[in-house]
Every structure is written in C-alpha cells, then in structure tokens.
Amino acid sequence: MPVTVRRASREALCSVHSGQAPPGREPCADAEPRAEAAIPKSPRRTVRTVTALILAAIMALTVTACGPDRGLKVSPEGNPSPSLFAPNTEAAGQANEPFSLDEVRKAIESSSGIAVTGSATETAKVVADCEDCLKFASPFLSGEQKFQLVTVANPKQRNEIIAGAVISEQRGEPRLELIATGNQLKVSPGRNGTLVVQEAMFADGDKACCPSGWSVQVFRLHDGRFEPGQRFTRLNGET
User: Fold this and answer.
1) Which of 93, 127, 133 shows the shortest CA–CA distance to 113?
2) Are residues 137 and 152 in contact, defined by beta-carbon separation less than 8 angstroms?
C-alpha cells in the first residue's frame, strides 16, 4: 500500500541538488604475454575468457555503486550534515545586528507575514501573540549583504520550530525577505550564502517524536529574491 505523507500547510515557498555516485573504474587492459598470444585459442577457451571479463566488469561496477555516496545527505536534526549546516558564519557578525529582536518582530507584524518571497500570515500571528516564540539564529552573508535569521517556535511546544524568517536591511529599515514553514523545522545558513531548510516528514501513524523521514530544501539568492531549489526527501529510509 502507498505511504501517505502528512505535511504542514504551507503559505510560503519553503528546497537540493544531489550529487552523483563516483564513476566506475575503467577495466584494466589485457596484459597477456606475447608467447601466449601466438598460441591459437579454442572457441571454448575464448568463450570462458570473455565471460570472465564480463563478470569482472560487473563486479567492479557493483563495488563502485555500493561505495560511499558523495551526494546530499539528510541527517537527523541533532546531527546535521556538515556539508550543508557548517559554513563559516563569523564574518556575518552578531545575530542582533543591525536590528534588534523587537525591530524584527515589528517588521514581521507590520507586513502581516507577507515576505518578498512567499507569505505566512499564521506565523505573523504567532509572532505577535507569543513574545518568547521568536528567537535569533545564526546570521549569514550572501556576497557582502548580511541577512538576519530568526526562528518561530510552536506556542504549545516551545522546543518545536514551525517557521524561519530572513530579514535584510533596506534603506536603514528591516525588510522581511522570506518565511519558510513546516513540521519540526530546522533553518540554517548553508554554503555560498544559501539558506537550508530541513523539516520532518510524517507518515500516517507516526508520533510527534518519531517522523518517518526528512525533507531538505536550499534557498539561493537570485536577482534579489530567495528562490527554492530542488527538494530532497527521505521517507522510511528511501530517497
């Protein structure tokens, strides 16, 4: 029976290029001594030789295919992939600069959750009603432009993140660039000025503590807007 995936209702664009497994090794060239080459081979011996070469090639490809996947890895929230979630954010400075948490809150409220990329009106209501639900996360740079990052917690379960918002500075004022929403969200700066959004994926019967899988999406700044890339998911151990 197909597995039904339960996802949070999204009001925002909330997505990853996967690499390819390393190519197989080239088969080694035939290195038989010239003395043997001069001896004519029987048809049966020729068939055995060709069969052995084909089997060797298949085994080499199989070993390569089973080797380590150098593509994108989706990791549990407590153990994020270093290739995605471990950029150098020190150059971005303090999380509360240039705007304080109150200034960021007012920017989200005044925009009613309508961001440059996407919208999330319900998130704006949570920010307005729950003062402790809004927290700073690590800021990041895209080129020379700084972006502040805040997370929004579930008012009923404060250890669960339900949204992440990106704030930029425009003419000395905070501007809401992006709001991403989802189940048990994790938003983190990625490499090369990207934003990585990872969320839990639930199948029917899953408990809140134990999602069946994860979804990862990378946002890249393009022409002044954060655009979502390909979504990479893993559900019940399959990608």
Assistant:
1) 127
2) no
Q: How far is CA 207 from CA 99, 162, 164, in A?
A: 38, 17, 23
CA distance 77 to 75: 6
- Secondary structure class of 19 (helix, strand, coil): coil
Segments of 96-206 assigned E as strands:
134-136, 140-142, 145-154, 157-170, 173-181, 186-189, 195-203
Between the alpha carbon of residue 164 and those of residues 152, 184, 233, the distances in Å are 6, 11, 19
Residue-wise pLDDT for 176-227, tens only, equals: 999 999 989 999 998 888 999 999 888 888 888 888 898 999 999 988 899 9
**Residue the block writes with tokens 């003419």:** 171
Quick one: tokens of 137?
């996360």
Name the DSSP letter for residue 26. Answer: P
Whole-structure pTM value: 0.63
- 131: which 2 tokens? 């003062």
Closest CA to 162 of 128, 215, 122: 122
**Token pair listed for 212:** 């069946």
